[in-house]
Specification:
Layout lengths: L2 E6 L1 H5 L3 H11 L2 E8 L3 H7 L9 H8 L4 E7 L3 H9 L12 H5 L8 E3 L3 H11 L8
Antiparallel strand pairs: 1-3, 1-4, 2-3
The structure holds guanosine-5'-triphosphate and magnesium ion.
Protein name: Nucleoside diphosphate kinase
GO molecular function: ATP binding; metal ion binding; nucleoside diphosphate kinase activity
Keywords: ATP-binding, Cytoplasm, Kinase, Magnesium, Metal-binding, Nucleotide metabolism, Nucleotide-binding, Phosphoprotein, Transferase
Length: 138
């Protein structure tokens, strides 16, 4: 079964939206395999967002992601990678329709409340980064 990595970002945790967001993933048919509340280190965030290190929004992104604990998850199901990203909604907030998590709860592209891996390969990399204890299980 396909697995993906998803995360409720610091503003989602602060706003008490973990349950609401997890309910949407579970309602869709995805199963929670592992989860934890974690205050990510700078090193972990830099590795997670390595592909964006030269982008103009990178410093704001790292500052935002360092602003409090996140809720990190491994989810499993048919097309899990794609399903989580459909439920999350598009990156650009002006494109995020009501009905998606970003469309329903965000007004700003930086403070966009959720993360989902963008491919099966990214999911493997991110699961090992955030859940190294799963090393032998995926
Ligand atoms: P993630 O699931 O968080 O990886 O989002 P994504 O895959 O939809 O977007 P992407 O990986 O391209 O960007 C990572 C994060 O950087 C986004 O979630 C945003 O928080 C931020 N970001 C991306 N593009 C922009 C942008 O054009 N402007 C701003 N301000 N932030 C951006
Ligand atoms: Mg991404």
């Amino acid at each position: 079964m396909e697995k993906t990595f998803a995360m409720v970002k610091p503003d989602g945790v602060k706003r008490g939206l973990i349950g609401e967001i997890l309910k949407r993933y579970e309602n869709k048919g995805l199963n929670l395999v592992a989860a934890k509340v974690i205050s990510p280190s700078l090193d972990l965030l830099q590795k997670h967002y390595e592909e964006h290190k030269d982008k103009p929004f990178y410093d704001d992104l790292i500052r935002y992601m360092s602003s409090g604990p996140v809720f990190a998850m491994i989810l499993e199901g048919d097309n899990a990678v794609k399903m989580v990203r459909l439920l999350n909604g598009p990156t650009k907030i002006e494109d995020a329709q009501p009905g998606t998590i970003r469309g329903d709860f965000c007004t700003n592209t930086t403070f966009n409340i959720v993360h989902g891996s963008d491919s099966v390969e990214s999911a493997k990399r991110e699961i090992l980064l955030w859940f190294p204890e799963y090393m032998n299980k995926i």
